[in-house]
Amino acid sequence: MAVIPKFVGERIKRREDPRLITGTGMYVDDVRLPGMLSAVVLRSPHAHAKINSIDLSKARALKGVVCVLSGDDLRDKVGPVPCVAPADHVPYHPVLAQGKVRFVGEGVAVAVASSPYIAQDALDLIDVDYDPLDAVVDPEKALEPGAPVLHEEFGNNSVTFASVPNPAVDEAMRKADKIIKARLVNQRLAPIPMEPRGAVARWDGGYKQLTVWSSTQIPHLLRSQLAEMLKVGENRIRVIAPEVGGGFGCKLNVYAEEALVAHLSMTLGKPVKWIERRRENFAGTTHGRDQITYLEVAALKDGTVTAVKAHFVCDMGAYLQLLTPAIPGFSGLMMTGCYKIPALSFDQQMVFTNKMSTDAYRGAGRPEACYIAERVMDMVAAEFGLDPADVRRKNFIPKEAFPAPTAGGLVYDSGDYELSLNKALEIVGYQKVRAEQEAARKQGRYIGIGIASYVEICGIGPSALLPPKLKGGGWESATIRMEPDCKVTVLTGVSPHGQGQETTFAQIVADELGIDIDDVNVVHGDTAVVQYGIGTFGSRGTTVGGPALMMSVGKLQEKMKKIASTMMEVPPDQLIFTNRTVALASDPSKSIPLQQVVDAAYGYKQPIPGVEPGLDATSFYEPQNCTFPFGTHVAVVEVDPETGVVKFLRYVAVDDCGRILSPLLVEGQVHGGIAQGIAQALYEEVVYDESGQLLTATLMDYAVPKAHMLPRYELSATVTPSPVNVLGVKGVGEAGTIGSTPCVVSAVMDALKPFGIRHIDMPLKPEKVWRAIRDAQQKG
Amino acid sequence: MKLSGEQVLSAPRERVWDLFNNPERLSKLIPGCEKLDVLGPDEYGGTINVGVASVKGIYSGKLKLEDKRAPEHYKMVVDGKGKQGFMRGSGTLDLEAKDRNLTVVKYNGDVQIGGPLVQVGQRVIDSAAKMMLGQFFAAADAELKAEAAGTVARQGIFINFWRWLVRLLSGK
User: Fold this and answer.
1) How distant, in Å, are the alpha carbons of A324, A370, A581, A584 from that of A587?
2) Who contacts A667 (Cβ-Cβ below 8 Å, separation ≥6)?
3) Are strands A520-523 and A488-492 parallel, antiparallel or unpaired?
4) How far is residue A249's CA from residue A289's CA, in Å, rounded to a whole number?
């Protein structure tokens, strides 16, 4: 019999991909049910307006139209869109606007018809009489007295003001050689999943059963929230997340349309589908970032940073989505990055504006933090004429210090930041590239070398870190079931949508049970099949879902060992699982086929004392800490001073995500992450005009990078296992996004150093870079 | 969107003023204008059919003239909407007599445009607006010239008649 190889650590291709690339996967829009109706939502063209009246009569009269509703028709019928994160002012957020609209794209009415085209025609017949009001788009202006107020009941546009003071900061400022001040902007971004949102609902009245298919990252949490919005028992709701074509945080949410289609199906007695269009996705799906940071940095001449003080203005948009006001907190807490900066204080003013809500977007608060920390290091280096690599080395938390408590109150699990920096610099050939840079400058060419050493939070996390109002904590669940034919079913509470746990988890289980990877089927994303789970976000799939799976694997192994030990008459602790057998560890040739153990468990012909029939184990894993992956990215770019265009010459990424289970998947995550991070640095930006009109509402106007706009990645890794979990893994879903943004900005600024330019706000579009060069030349 | 500029029209100021206050004639000059009705004193309602990039549609709305100082100044207030968006704004029109037969029209407006019209068309909306203004002024100039030519023609008939009469009476 062929020997079954080990799978963990091997370059295994994603087992999800064949169905995805052959069009045999099923997305929400592929759900087609008999008698299904289509819903289309009418959206506000105004950023801020009073609704005087809505005339639905003509729309209702159109042939093929089943139902047309406005916000007033849903009062007391569907509960508000939830926000579970704490804030001083949490506005009432109706599923369709009531009395007033507060951003372009807010739902005003819904038409349901036999086809989406008829429903769209019906929308054209709806007459809404708006009374436009002044809009406020700039979060700083929104705080000024006299600014238009979005939610009158609060009297102003403040969501929350949070302050983390620290007297040690003032002391450090007094003793500093230099206080460096800066204003940094993390611009608003759109997550742009390739598959927009969508939901289908079917109410089976006879069974009192509601099924909702939704393109979501959190099927169970969505079920809990829908139960509350619709006043239906959770045991009567089944949420299915079929294939989800990207989420990046924007589907870690509960949206009006999900409750809307459910309500419509329950009232009409027919299945109802709503599929988001790209322009709706730009206008009505959560955005990310949008923070302004005012910084004061206390530094010593040798490059030591002794304190950081920051004031944040965070744009929350018009309403608060599920976790909107929780995101900026991560930026504050992680602002000291990989550095032993002893004193940190910050305050955060969160603001309502007439824009779509912000919420989690790949990195969620940590890209902003890392951007701040890395700009600080570069500014200190520039201020004192030091090498930016040396300034980082000077301030790194040393590897002996782990577990390392930080000024932000976190405890970093493990790390070796200098190792990662050294490795990245070695790969890029730092001294040689510096010499080339010098030579190029003499020829009038502007080459820049950017460095970013990042650390971030993954594996979220201990339940105490998540808002109390969120049903479900930071734990994760897993069930493993050895079926009677010796094939394994895994039910995981995480909800992968590109992360590839169908592959990773099968690798783990195959190795642990000594079976083939093809013997394992990983099932997820269906609340009727899978026990309650939390979902996939914050790079927690393998870091939290993995240990939960290991717990269940352990329980199953223990039971099978008990059975085998009776059959083989050896102590259970001397048994191992290998090559589809249960074998003696000291002599694997002494074994019995795994199938015989499984037969004994299911057949139960000779009961084994203390062992129940069946082979099924469920576990819930609560992590004791988050994990803190880290790494160093180095970019070499050339800026054309005539056009402002940034061209990549090299891109090196050394990432440390702890133990690597699936190298190909890790690389894939890093590739995608870097692309999205570079997009923030150079290309992408959500733009509203001053009256609140969304100007970047199509893929023609919002610059998602194409392949030719990205470099060839030179990837490497260091491996510092996490002590937090049994797998030693740290998570890698967001790492690339976090390291790349500051790295590229650092490289461009380094290239522009001869012009005396120290900072340009992102995105570093050619026009902006060109203007900065021209302004600097005119000044000089 | 801010729109400002000036155009020279080949007609005396009074004639330009008359044209700019005559909805029936104006409706023929405004690109895509399908209807312009008088709703009240200095208040008009109408529909125009325009396309910007791929966003084509019919917009209906109201136009009000305020602060009128004949023959040199008025303010226009526009409020219109259609399936593909809305336009709101105001602008001023100032007429300066350059010489007997030339009038400088200075316009200055601020228009707010919303909905899909701006979301899809924002890259081209400025040039589309300028193009439409260009078309409007070209049509206005042609109309004024035609009007003048018509007058000259009528004057010609009169003069010819007078000369014929003089000749007749003088017996030459």
Assistant:
1) 57, 52, 12, 5
2) A715
3) parallel
4) 12
CATH pick for A31-133+194-246+251-284 out of 3.40.50.720, 3.90.1170.50, 3.10.350.10, 3.30.1440.10:
3.90.1170.50
The CATH number assigned to the domain with range B2-170 reads 3.30.530.20
Q: Using the beta-carbon criterion (under 8 Å), do A46 and B86 form an inter-chain contact?
A: yes
Is residue B113 within 8 Å of B81, Cβ to Cβ? no
Question: pLDDT tens digits for A723-737?
Answer: 999 999 999 999 999
Whether A98 has its CB under 8 Å from any CB of chain B: the answer is no
In chain A, ranges of CATH 3.90.1170.50 domains? 31-133+194-246+251-284
Question: Tell me, what amino acid is at A46?
Answer: H
Is the bond leading into A763 cis (omega within 30 degrees of zero)?
yes
Taking only the tens place, the pLDDT of each residue in A599-644 is 999 998 888 888 999 999 999 999 999 999 999 999 999 999 999 9
Q: Do A279 and B123 touch (CB under 8 A)?
A: no
- Asked whether the whole model's pTM tops 0.90, one would answer yes
Within B33-72, strands assigned E span 33-40, 43-52, 55-69
Which helix (H) or strand (E) is B158 found in, with range?
A: helix B116-170
A691 and B112 within 8 Å at the Cβ level: the answer is: yes
Mean pLDDT of chain A: 97
Among A residues 281-340, those touching chain B with beta carbons less than 8 Å apart: 282-283
Express each pLDDT in A502-516 by its tens digit.
999 999 999 999 999
Cβ–Cβ of B123/A700 closer than 8 Å?
yes
**Which residues lie below 8 Å from residue A264, measured CB to CB, with a gap of 6+?**
A37, A39, A67, A69, A110, A112, A201, A272
Classified as helix, coil or strand, A747 is helix
